[in-house]
Amino acid sequence: MSAKMKKLTSCLQSLRANSEIDGCALVTERGQLMAAVLPNDVDDKAVSAMAAALISIGTRVGTALSSGTPKSILIEGQEKVIVLRKVGNTALIGTAPADAKVGLIDFEMTKAAEEIESIL
């Protein structure tokens, strides 16, 4: 593993340790996994592809509604909350329990995004 990938993985581990996030990953706009700290039962390749698709669709919707590129996308499920945040040419995705404090997660993801941008 390269030094850059180690730094990115460390950043994701810190994000998980400092928030209610129970899994997170950094993916390219094309759906390639760069770094991940996900539960063992999660298919990281599928998550990568779907995260890239969500960012792409969110961007199209933002353009169609003249709101610009979305800063983040929130999916509130019955079991989990999923937050996607655009970070340069990548997407940071995090999952948390459905009752998690989304504001705190957003705060921690913003800090992680700034660190990721400095690494990339």
What layout of secondary structure does this protein have?
Elements lengths: L2 H15 L5 E6 L4 E5 L6 H21 L7 E5 L3 E8 L2 E8 L4 H18 L1
Antiparallel strand pairs: 1-2, 1-5, 3-4, 4-5
Describe this structure in words.
The chain contains three helices and five strands; from the N terminus they run H-E-E-H-E-E-E-H. By secondary structure, it is α+β, with helices and mostly antiparallel strands. The protein has one domain: Dynein light chain 2a, cytoplasmic (Beta-Lactamase, 2-Layer Sandwich), CATH 3.30.450.30. It has a five-stranded antiparallel β-sheet, sandwiched between helices. Strand 4 and strand 5 (90-97) form a beta hairpin. It is globular and about 40 Å long. The relative contact order is 0.19. The mean pLDDT is 90.
Average pLDDT for all residues: 90
CATH class: Alpha Beta
Task: List how many beta strands DSSP finds.
Answer: 5
Report the structural category.
Answer: alpha+beta
Low-confidence stretches: none
Q: How would you sum up the global shape?
A: globular
Q: CATH topology, what is it called? A: Beta-Lactamase
Major sheet details: 5 strands, antiparallel
For the record, the count of structural domains works out to 1
Content of β-strand: 25-35%
> In the CATH hierarchy, what is the architecture at level 2?
2-Layer Sandwich
Radius of gyration: 13 Å
Number of helices: 3
What is the CA-CA span between the terminal residues? 15 Å
**CATH homologous superfamily designation:** Dynein light chain 2a, cytoplasmic
Relative helix content: 40-55%
Largest sheet strand order: 2-1-5-4-3
Q: What is the element string, with H for helices and E for strands?
A: HEEHEEEH
